[in-house]
Design a protein that fits this description.
Layout lengths: L19 H21 L8 H34 L8 H24 L9 H24 L3 H5 L1
Amino acid sequence: RAPPARTPAAAVAAPPAAAPEALLPVAAASAAIGLLPLVAAPAPAVAGWQDFVVGPLGLINTGLNLYKTALGIYALMSWLTAFGIIDMRNDLVQKFQGFLSSVIDPVLSPLRGVIPPLAGFDISFMVLWFVIDQAQAAAVSIIFGALTYDTYNTYM
């Protein structure tokens, strides 16, 4: 038997070239299919153990924020009282200062016993502010870590 005759490469009919406008829907469809895993991927919402970390730490962070605000108002009121700008004989000022004092003094008192005044200036307030700020930074860092846990494996 004789081998089949080979046709030269030039003789093979090439498919007709499509116009660029005709390829546009095909390109859009392939791009949409390529983006499908990103769209269909689960959202980075907390699931499982992250709920037990993010929720309580979010509340703690909010509480620390409120406490820092009260601490700032307490310090500001003490300075304004010392300079005679706020009159402590006013009932509303007395009640508000008493409320802030009942919330803040139990935390500041142990610090005042340990930290001596520096040149007559009580720095226990600043130490407490710094400790609260560091606690907030740690809480936010843990929250961010919990929210982004396993994100690399989810999206890669």
